[in-house]
Amino acid sequence: MTGSLLERRAIRIKQAWEKFIKTGILENYVVSLSIGRSWKRCFEKNINPYGHLEHLNVNSGALCKQKVNNNFVLSTAPFMDNIYNFVKGSGFIVILTNNEGLILKTYGDPVIRQKMRSISMEEGICWAESNIGTNAIGTCIIEKKALQVNATEHYCKILHDISGSAAPIFNPRGNLVGVLALIGIYRDSHLHTLGMMVAAVKAIENQLSYQEAQAGLIEANKYAGTIMGTMSEGVLLINREGIIKQINKAGCGILGLRPGEGHGRSAQKVFGENSPLVAALKDGAGYNEREMTLNSKEGEPLRFSSNAMPIIDESGEISGIVVTIREIKSVHRLVNRIVGAEASFNFENIITGNNKLLAIIDKAKRMAKSHSNILILGESGTGKEMFAQSIHNYSEYSQGPFIVINCGAIPRDLVESELFGYEDGAFTGAKKGGRPGKFELANGGTIFMDEIGDLPIELQPALLRVLQQRQVTRVGGSKVIPVNIRVISATHKDLYQEVQKGNFRLDLFYRLNVLNIKLPNLRDRKDDMAPLVDYFIGKFRIRTGSGVEKVSPKTYEIFYNYHWPGNIRELENVIEQALHAARGDTLEPEHLPENILPKTAPQKEAGKEQMSYSDHEAQIIKEALVKFNWNISLTAKNLRIGRSTLYRKIKAYNLMSSLF
Ligand SMILES: Nc1ncnc2c1ncn2[C@@H]1O[C@H](COP(=O)(O)OP(=O)(O)OP(=O)(O)O)[C@@H](O)[C@H]1O
């Protein structure tokens, strides 16, 4: 287009503008559709075409707020600088506005900027179309597209000497965030300025996208870091070159490193060449619950269990692995909690007013504070396990597990692996990855070896070795595992007599019997009868729905005269059964099970065949065993008897035969 052509077009537009301002009629489309639409909006809003923009004030508050909160201004600065360098001396200024047309930044020669101030082109003034009519900035915001407004295309006459090119800036989500514009004197304008704005805005939008993606990554990284930091498990991210790229605080702790120390280290160096983790990195196969042992800087063994999961990239290649590690102690603690290996009784739960037993409790409390092995002797049901639990809870080992082993109940060929654990492939049927034994599981706590008198003689040397050396070696393994445990054993047998009979080793007897407690039978502490009866009535009243509140003198007489071979457990069972049978508020002899009644006592339900206590008990146990599918722990728990007692009763009543 030649100068004269441009001039002629300018004249035509001027005429059209004058007519439109007077009549509101836009006859032939000498202006673009965008400008035509804008003129109409201005006309309808009664914007004064002859106004001097004196109503426009700098809104410094809005400007300040925008600048403080907006790194948009900072992100665009280098681009505005570039354009300014390009148009320097051309009579144009570069302008950045927000999405409402508020001028945030102007770049330009001081003289031009000063001149532009006369038409309110300065930071803090809003160039919205509703303020100053058709203009490149305001109209670009409404039309949401790049456009150029020249001279008389402006709605207000005061702007007829200028030319503006503006392009909208959208963020990555497609929202308008601002406008980049080049404004100057009309006669110096150039057709290419609009193209320049569009290109610059494209670059700004790319920069915004990049920044947003980066901010997202930083935020995700921050979240991941926080999550890793709060985990009690150790977590490591290892790249394909085997370098530890991230390790959390727990991971450093488990590996004996200072926080942050593991970062950047070679996994092979930290875990050893033969570790499954190094293999997982090579072959891309993850693994679960593998045990590892390393030596700390101080030479202490660090034992932990680990899981690994490879990270596979889009091309199917291994780009690294995520490894989680957990101290064996904490794994065992968790296992113990799940299997219920926790001691629930305390000395306060032992109901007694008997002086002899009170003195024994005092002695047991003193013993609890030592680290020596304790042997508890007493007939069945006298409270040996209750004492063992109370000692554990009163001792330094109380935070650790309480593991019970019934030495008489484990099949002979399994005792060794149950006590000491086994390694992978130790025998046919051994679990992959091996299994820890009860001594390992009890580490840091107490091991209660019930029915120690029934421990097979051929296994006694191995137990003696563990007690002497305080370390175990798994069956089929060679690694020595140190264990810090308190050993409490118990038996209803006369252990010394067992030694003399040749069933029990004397050296093991001495080892176990460093401290000992002999619990009295119930028949020898009849003064405890009333408090125990009261206690058990209270314990079972709700469960049985019974209204019993007192015990008749005749019933007490029976209790005092009975010899209680099953001791407190038997009393507990008798009260529970009696509460089921009783209807009123008093426990009478007829509510009691047959076997505890003296021979002269009146018979219940004459004519009907009576079951003996033992038959009755055998039947109840048999039914419970069937109900719980012969799961000994569940059955014992449900019958509220010890596992050892259950085993003994199964043997005594020959209940195994009912299986075949
Ligand atoms: N003094 C007591 N106060 C309250 N309950 C008691 C007391 N003594 C024992 N018991 C209860 O009697 C039952 C048997 O106790 P425990 O299992 O400790 O006996 P035990 O001697 O270990 O038996 P076993 O040799 O048969 O394993 C438990 O239910 C326990 O709660």
TrEMBL record:
Signal peptide: none annotated. GO terms for biological process: regulation of DNA-templated transcription. Coiled coil: none annotated. SUPFAM superfamilies: Homeodomain-like, P-loop containing nucleoside triphosphate hydrolases, PYP-like sensor domain (PAS domain). PANTHER family: C4-DICARBOXYLATE TRANSPORT TRANSCRIPTIONAL REGULATORY PROTEIN DCTD, TRANSCRIPTIONAL REGULATORY PROTEIN. The lineage of its organism: Bacteria, Bacillati, Bacillota, Clostridia, Eubacteriales. Keywords: ATP-binding, DNA-binding, Nucleotide-binding, Transcription, Transcription regulation. GO terms for molecular function: ATP binding; sequence-specific DNA binding. It comes from Desulfocucumis palustris. Pfam families: AAA_lid_14, GAF, HTH_8, PAS, Sigma54_activat. This is Response regulator of zinc sigma-54-dependent two-component system. Residues 350-580 form the Sigma-54 factor interaction domain. Residues 288-340 form the PAC domain. InterPro entries: AAA+_ATPase, AAA_lid_NorR, GAF, GAF-like_dom_sf, Homeodomain-like_sf, HTH_Fis, P-loop_NTPase, PAS. Gene3D superfamilies: 1.10.8.60, 3.30.450.40, Homeodomain-like, P-loop containing nucleotide triphosphate hydrolases, PAS domain.
